[in-house]
Amino acid sequence: MYGHDFPGPDDGPADGLLEQVEAAEVALRAAADRGRPGVADGPAADTDPQHYFTALIEADQKIEPRDWMPDAYRKTLIRQIAQHAHSEIIGMQPEGNWISRAPSLGRKAILLAKVQDEAGHGLYLYAAAETLGVTRDELVELLLTGRQKYSSIFNYPTLGWADVGAIGWLVDGAAIVNQVPLCRCSYGPYARAMIRVCKEESFHQRQGYEILHRLASGTPAQRAMAQDAVDRWWYPSLAMFGPPDTDSTHSQQSMAWKIKRFSNDDLRQRFVDMCVQQAGVLDLRLPDPDLRWNEQRQAYDYTQPDYAELMRVISGDGPCNRQRIDHRRRAHADGSWVREAAAAYTAKRQREDRPAVAA
Ligand SMILES: [Fe+2]
Ligand SMILES: [Fe+2]
Question: Which keywords does this Swiss-Prot/TrEMBL entry list (predicted)?
Fold first, then answer.
């Protein structure tokens, strides 16, 4: 099953998330070994850059920063990678809220590691975006002034400890379903960043699932907490896949460029199918009375999320939008002395003709 991190007895060995990520990594290396069109024994290089770009994409080769690319491809990637980076950084807040209130030292250490991973994901992604000719400062400015968005999901509040479990299971789970195909994205730096990110996301999903599993098999009060968190996070997680295909503005061109490999609705369906089985193991209910197996489609029928709500949250009117961006602005201002000190140190090393970081 796609993006399935808990293969059942009927699933083959290639169905787990990590197997899919590894397969993408092998494909990436194989493409590099095959050589690019016009190099070594590939077809002759075309002098028209647009033709060469198309030939690289058709040959499932990666576009690298040194390559010519259409302006719209570059802009699409900058927008997508930047929004992804912003989401990782803003996404630290809902869970960061629970680090000081985790129920044990072990839980605190795990959550701390998870939130720190998200910071790392943001950094890989800003670095990937920088290869397209923007600076991290520019992108951060676009986030702080509201001109670039981040995922709507992080504008919902974390009301209890069980929310940390529901976020790991559902939010990181939805992120995985979205991101595994990006390991095969046509832009090399993004694809390579995604391979590492997905390996870490697998751990995030498992930690959330394990929290819910413990709560769901605990006292009646703990079970109720787990169910309440799943009830609140289910539909916002479905909305993470974006508007339905009929309203999705960027999809077709992104598919042609092999940035995107599957439509929003396809990925959402895969996520639903994956979650139903996992909810069964947890013995928790997904809050959808119309969720049922459709024999003909070989998939679950389900209730769509409220897309009007998604649009409201994206445009700034979610429960925590203001709080999240205020917090990020404050954190950015508080960190200015670190950036200044790092820049001064680098300048000093350059004056002394030494590398910025000692070997
Ligand atoms: Fe992440
Ligand atoms: Fe994550």
Answer: Oxidoreductase
